[in-house]
UniProtKB/TrEMBL annotation:
The protein's name in its UniProt record: Uncharacterized protein isoform X1
Pfam family, one: MIF
Database matches in InterPro entries: Macrophage_inhib_fac, Tautomerase/MIF_sf
Gene: LOC113696221
GO terms for MF: phenylpyruvate tautomerase activity
Family: Belongs to the MIF family.
GO cellular component: extracellular space
Length: 121
């Protein structure tokens, strides 16, 4: 069961969270290759957080899945989820990190899964 946990410092009052949850669910299911019925999305807003020393809108996510993850899928997921956050919550793509964890991975491979930032260094 893929589970995407998203935390942001953006307040969710007045935001159509159902649209975010629905779009994230279908995106994760499609890209990971799992039925939507098995995808869980957790969205937490108003979380005290900063990025780069500022408290401007930012977000952090963790996606755990039993299989279905690889560098190409991870890149597509990062782009798609960051697009959702940018359009629905005004979180710039450069202020979002997404961590991937494939629970079937060998322990050393699981440890090697990295944080993926969309901005270029």
């Amino acid at each position: 069961m893929p589970c995407l946990n998203l935390s942001t410092n953006v307040k969710l009052e007045g935001v159509d969270t159902s649209a975010i949850l629905s779009e994230a669910t279908s995106t994760v299911a499609k890209l990971v290759g799992k039925p939507e019925a098995y995808v869980m999305i957790v969205l937490k807003g108003s979380v005290p957080m900063s990025f780069g020393g500022t408290e401007q809108p930012t977000a952090y996510g963790e996606l755990v899945s039993i299989g279905g993850l690889n560098p190409d899928v991870n890149k597509k997921l990062s782009a798609a989820i960051s697009n959702i956050l940018e359009t629905k919550l005004n979180v710039p793509k450069s202020r979002f990190f997404l961590k991937f964890c494939d629970t079937k991975a060998h322990q050393s491979q699981e440890y090697a899964q990295c944080l993926h930032a969309l901005h270029q260094y």
